[in-house]
Design brief:
Layout: H1 6-14, H2 17-29, H3 35-50, E1 68-69, E2 72-73, H4 79-89
Antiparallel strand pairs: 1-2
Helix pairs in contact: 2-3
């Protein structure tokens, strides 16, 4: 038996999409099913129909202080500057918003 690839698994699982959605709907509408099962099915259907809800996350350093990266307070930086720093760190050639590197 040959080893299945991730694409094979995805394709086979996709063949059960209609059945899986019907099963979730059946559980959701089964008033004799446990409430937890109905709620889980309802959330799964809503996630597939509308996407998962966005969750906010606050990040801070020790004792709630700003996070310092190489001595920089990134908490007060504009998004454009953060994106430019990310581009440099990710090895991207285009460095929008950063001053040109001067040769020493």
């Amino acid at each position: 038996m040959s080893k299945m690839t991730q694409a094979d698994v995805k394709r086979i699982a996709g063949e059960f999409t209609e059945l899986a959605l019907k099963t979730l709907a059946d559980i959701c509408m089964d008033y004799e099913a446990p409430a937890a099962a109905r709620a889980t099915a309802a959330v799964a259907l809503l996630d597939r129909a509308h996407g998962k809800s966005v969750q906010a996350m606050e990040v801070s350093g020790p004792e709630g202080k700003p996070i310092l990266v190489a001595g920089l307070d990134i908490g007060s930086m504009p998004v454009e500057r953060l994106e430019a720093i990310k581009a440099v760190l990710m090895g991207v050639e285009e460095k929008k918003g950063l001053p040109e590197k001067k040769d020493a």
